Amino acid sequence: MAKIYYEKDADPSLITGKKVGIIGYGSQGHAHALNLRDSGVQVMVGLHDGSSSRAKAEAEGLVVASPAEVTKASDVIMILVPDTVQGSVYKDSIEPNLDGSKTLMFAHGFNIHFGEITPPADVDVSMIAPKAPGHRVREVFVDGQGVPSLVAIHQDASGNALANALSYGAGIGSMRAGIVETTFKEETETDLFGEQTVLCGGVTSLVTNAFEVLVEAGYQPEIAYFEVMHELKLIVDLLYEGGMKYMRYSVSETAEYGDYSRGPRVVDEHARIAMKQVLDEIQDGTFAKEWIAENHEGQPRFKAMRASAESHEIEDVGEQLRGMMTFLGKK
User: Fold this and answer.
1) Dmax (CA) of the chain
2) Catalytic residue among 32, 108, 113, 154
3) What is the model's pLDDT at position 54?
4) Which of 50, 158, 169, 255 has minimal Cβ neighbours within 10 Å of its Cβ?
């Protein structure tokens, strides 16, 4: 069983006694910076020249400087720019300004685990990874609660890396919920696996195929969209609130019987075998090498796949139907 840390396990004064630099001000960056600030931590935000996020951060009263300047001035540097640019930002702006007095932190282990970033041996390297999008991390904190996080230690040069990381976790509110201990390897590989097989790749492929089967069988695209895309949120909300048992309790017995008797025929042993292959490619570095090379080449295949997906009929039908739903927020 995983080890879980709670508020009694953290010393909040450790992080309030340090200067924290947040590199990036996107989804996670803004949440970490604002939550830490509200917890009494000295925070600076590192952004490149011309960043569109600069005005947003300054409007919140945060000090903004270049990533290099923030690294020099900070005791703790949390890197929250996208995975695809972390390596270059680290090499150009962070690495030249690191020394053994500083802690390097991440919210995802990709670049450390796959060797795109190799910190000096005398620097503490740790992770606090909230298990929610940044806007949710902020909303829950403001409401007086916290979202769970993961904690991992890659290098403990000082002997205090875990204590400092848990203190940081308390600063963003995660100690209110609990912080689960993991490793950079486990966090990275399970995160990629979840995205590829279920949360993004699995779900979108399942929905797209189901939509196409119904339309090809002569059903109206609008009806197909409602049944295999729109209503998905209703089921996911039930799963989120109470797991599979609660979802099955909440739907009709007809739906529940179809779940047990037909679901395993769709997502069958062939899918399980494919999932194992996907996991193998994550574990042996095949996916990481492919994705890193794709970015070095300017993302030609990625952009082509994106354009193809965006032109699918399900997107046109969905846009039309969502226009009927005035209760939806603009995304």
Assistant:
1) 66
2) 108
3) 95
4) 50
CA distance 183 to 153: 7
> Amino acid identity of 219?
Y
Residue written as tokens 């997107």? 315
Cβ atoms of 79 and 106 within 8 Å: the answer is yes
287: amino acid identity, one letter: F
pLDDT of 330 reads 59
- Residue 13 C-beta-side C-alpha neighbours within 13 Å: 0
270 catalytic? Reply is no
How many CB atoms are closer than 10 A to CB 6? 13
Question: How confident is the model over 47-65, as pLDDT tens digits?
Answer: 998 899 999 999 999 999 9
Per-residue pLDDT at 185: 98
Helices 300-310, 286-296: axis angle to 10 degrees equals 90
Can you list the positions of beta strands (E) in the chain?
4-5, 19-23, 42-46, 63-65, 76-79, 103-106, 124-130, 149-155, 179-181
Nearest CA-CA partner of 153 in 190, 112, 117: 112
- Collect the ranges in the chain with pLDDT lower than 70: 330-331
Structure tokens at 319: 């846009």
